[in-house]
From TrEMBL:
GO molecular function: transferase activity
Subunit structure: Homodimer.
Similarity remark: Belongs to the UPP synthase family. Z-FPP synthase subfamily.
Annotated substrate binding sites: 52-55, 64, 68, 96-98, 102, 225, 231-233
Enzyme Commission number, as recorded: 2.5.1.-
Class in the EC hierarchy, top level: transferase
Function, in words: Catalyzes the condensation of isopentenyl diphosphate (IPP) with allylic pyrophosphates generating different type of terpenoids.
Protein name: Isoprenyl transferase
Length: 276
């Protein structure tokens, strides 16, 4: 058994090592920030797949609801990083259509967080100072009315802004988005008196693009997915045809600014040829 002075010395050494690691990480982060600032190009539209909330909670011995709560807090933090860099459009994927099969209590908690964050964003000084236009994209027909009210209030308060475009993908699926776009195009053609035969004969990719949820936003040029999973899971299937991808081995709530900057530095080093 260690004596009290020895135990105190061990604690002091541990604190010193921790402080040294923190200083090294801070220094590395500052160097990355300079490299990204000097690296030129940044994404016009950044897609973020927020994955790993539940595994983060499990790894920390917490309930899954805490993982989602920490994930919501992280989204606020990452929004600030994007604003500081002047990224023009960001789409964050919060809840997929496939997630609807999860435990109803978990879905209810996620929707309560969505309502809370929508109300917070509607009064967030950063949103108004930076003229951020916020939209919720996806299929929301089955959402509780109070959640829809919060989303509508946020959209209405920011609808006239011309700064960053922030798309919150919730109740979202890439296949469903494409199906909705085709339906809307055909309905529009029918309302104009165009026959189904003529509409299908003249159908082009531009017609589909014109009716996507993100029709007023450039296609994403960079997509980051956290948690180490190497797949898209249906995120922006139509729009991501020329997107660059980055898969990060950290759960979303643990995503650090240094991870974000590493991803952007990686993007800046890529040669995008668009099939040429």
């Amino acid at each position: 058994m260690k004596s009290k002075p020895a135990a105190a010395a061990v604690r002091t050494l541990q604190k010193t090592r921790s402080a040294a690691r923190g200083a090294l990480l801070w220094g590395y982060e500052q160097r990355l920030a300079r490299e990204v600032a000097q690296g030129g190009k940044l994404p016009r539209h950044l897609g973020l797949i927020l994955d790993g909330n539940r595994r983060y909670a499990k790894a920390g011995g917490m309930g899954r609801e805490m993982g989602h709560s920490f994930g919501a807090d992280k989204a606020h933090e990452v929004l600030q990083w994007c604003l500081e860099l002047g990224i023009g459009a960001v789409t964050i994927w919060v809840l997929s259509t496939d997630n609807s099969s999860r435990d109803p209590q978990e879905i209810a908690h996620i929707l309560s967080l969505l309502e809370r964050e929508a109300l917070n964003l509607s009064t967030d000084p950063r949103i108004h100072a930076n003229r951020v236009k916020v939209r919720a994209i996806g299929q929301h027909a089955n959402f509780p009315e109070h959640v829809l009210d919060a989303l509508r209030e946020l959209e209405e308060k920011t609808a006239h802004y011309d700064g960053m475009r922030l798309n919150i993908a919730v109740g979202y699926g890439g296949r469903e988005e494409i199906v909705d776009a085709v339906k809307l195009h055909l309905e529009t053609q029918a309302a104009a008196g165009v026959s189904l035969e003529q509409a299908t004969a003249e159908l082009t990719p531009d017609h589909i693009s014109a009716h996507l949820y993100t029709t007023d936003t450039p296609d994403p040029d960079f997509i980051i997915r956290t948690s180490g999973e190497i797949r898209l899971s249906g995120f922006m299937l139509w729009q991501s045809v020329y997107s660059e991808y980055y898969f990060c081995d950290v759960y979303w709530p643990g995503f650090r600014r240094v991870d974000f900057l590493r991803a952007l530095r990686d993007f800046q080093g890529r040669d995008r040829r668009f099939g040429k």
